Amino acid sequence: MPPLRGTGSDREAEGPQFAGDYRLQACLGAGGMGVVHLAASASGLRLAVKVVHARYAEDPEFRARFRQEVAAARRVSGAFTAPVVDADPDAVRPWMATLYVPGPTLADQVKRNGPLSPAELRRLTAGLAEALRDIHRAGVVHRDLKPSNVLLTDTGPKVIDFGISRPVDSDLHTETGKLIGSPPFMAPEQFQRPREVGPAADVFALGSVLVHAATGHGPFDSDSPYIVAYQVVHDEPDLAGVPAELAPLVARCLAKEPADRPTPAEIMSALLPPSYEAEAFIPAQRRRPSLPDGEPGHAPAWDADTRVRATAPVPRRRGPRLAGRIRPRPTLAVVAVLALTGAGLYAALSAPAGGRPEAPARPDEVANAFTGWQTTLQELGPTAAPACAHDSGALYCTARGVGIARLDPVTGRVVWSRTSPIEQGSPEVPVVLADGRLIGAAAPTEPLRAYGAEDGRPGWRAGSGVPESYWPAGSAVVLSDGSGGMRAVDSRSGKELWRHGLAGFGVPRPGTYDAPSGLLTLSETSFDGTSTRVGAIRPATGEVAWHRELEGDLDLVGRTGDGSLVLASLYDTGLVDALVLLGPGDGGHGAVRRLALPSRMDLRGIAVSGAVVHLLEADGHLTAFDTAAEKGRVLWDLETAAGNVSPPVLGPGDRLYFSVQDGRLLAVDTARGALIGQTRPRLQNGRLGYAPSVPSPLVAGDRVFGTAPDGSVFAVDAREPSSW
């Protein structure tokens, strides 16, 4: 988190410890407009303090909107909101302190645990209706009710984020020609008559939120916000999966005309007498950033960049850290929108009848004529895409319930499989191809396990008692527990080679392995985000070969053809605003070049070919950037209209490939920046599930292997993308 830089003699000028008189204890989250911190009042009351980014503090229009948010939040503070404790919209860095509310958002709950039960859904309906009744009684229209703005607590749901709310008597209206909101949860009048938006728009949003809670998807779903807008205005909602006893009420909430929708009081009356259980919702246990005393916490949603302005440039949300620092997550932008919920993937594979493995294809067969195939894995529940790796003419895949399985890349037949229960979440990095002899797979909480490549016979285990991430590095596998503990094991025997901290590093992030030099790169950003230490170790010994301090918050993302390291420079919102190249040189002493990007990008992945860096954003926007030019230059831009994408991979013939959440595989001609092919969507029971990350496709010879949320693995001909 960048320091807060105030001016003057008051406590705020001391930053980064204070906002007003409140000491900032930890960063709970960040959005496009500011950062949310944990703080405490003089009496010890826990607070969530929103502090505006400095660049917006100078914007009079933003200050007016922030002042309005504070006023709206104060007016509705009560049982169903996070009460405002203090605020200073006129400070050098405007801020607002609300009561800290522990508990997951509805979006997180559905994403991690699937749709709510009918009883939970009725409780949610009643609680949100009562919340809207009180909000509207205070003369406020929320205008952005959505799953990420609903907190689930043991005292019932709470509505948060009044950043674009408008008191009915406010003189600050939406400007003509601009749409502000989250398209999948906006009412028809918000697209057609934004100046006339009233309380009924919140009721329409409530209907969409309830469909999401009941099914894991919204009543109007599309990759494009423009298609969503058309569906909201013209199409009937998709209510499949909504409990029959609630479907008529939800349908009334989603009426096209505001006058045809029930009021919150009418919704509450329709639910009486309460036939559902009276107990409050108990949030499922979940992982969150640790607070000072170890308590998991939630930062109220606060990201104005998640709203769509039809006349503004494409907004870019806070992006995922690259190279594994932060897991990829769905994003909302003008070009592409995916409202994705549900659970992860369950799958199981079984060896052919008789128990004997079938003969795998020879490596040279992979390059022969090919017609394509699809293998659907046994479904054990809601699915997400399996994750695979290719090596030496064989395909290895893992998924929920599957520790590792080998597939014939020519036919897609299962050669052998070994089960390993993965109870929740999508599979982590599925396969380690260690020194070409052994393969290993593990869930985040399971020890690394090796198998024989030919027959799948279990080999060594390398458990340390704590969850670890791992990186193949020549004849070694380097493991990290994420808190500074580092070790390595021999890829053939699993014998531990070393276990110790790394000189000059605290909690380093392993990056890429460079076979010619035999070094594994590392990086570590300083606590205040102002500098990053980059270095490399010898995997067999853990010896630090070199390290160097670079300016800025940087992520290692690749290596150019001349051996220069490529690092992404993260702006204070988490977006990437520049590339930093560390030229080849003895001991990391090469020249450093910083190349500004044309805009701040929400990057999902980077693929490097020679001096050209291909930047794929979470909304499917792809840019080819030439780092050979003195200041760098954009070769081409391509809008693919694909949301929630995988990191890209390069293949022969100037081709680039990436996967999409709905199971599509896309091919791009990098010579001219053109989309040249895409496969059909492959959905689970016709529905789009949720996965926290989308696995990249694999390229081998004349074929490309992809995976899809219907639990399938498939192969297509790389030579004819137009025929996919």
Characteristic key phrases:
single chain, 724 residues, alpha+beta, Phosphorylase Kinase, domain 1, Transferase(Phosphotransferase), domain 1, six-stranded antiparallel β-sheet, 13% helix, transferase, ATP-binding
Describe this structure in words.
With 724 residues, this protein is of the alpha+beta class. It contains nine helices and 44 strands. A hairpin with a 5-residue loop joins strand 31 and strand 32. The longest helix has 20 residues, at 118-137. It comes from Streptomyces wedmorensis. It holds the Pfam family Pkinase. Residues 287-323 are annotated as: Disordered.
User: What share of residues is helical?
Assistant: 10-25%
Report the sheet-strand fraction: 25-35%
Termini distance? 45 Å
Architecture per CATH nomenclature, i.e. the level-2 architecture of the domain at 88-306: Orthogonal Bundle
Please give the order of strands in the largest beta sheet.
Answer: 1-2-3-4-6-5
pLDDT < 50 runs, ≥5 residues: 1-16, 165-179, 274-321, 323-368
Organism: Streptomyces wedmorensis
Domain Protein kinase: 22-282
Keywords: ATP-binding, Kinase, Nucleotide-binding, Transferase
Binding site for ATP: 50
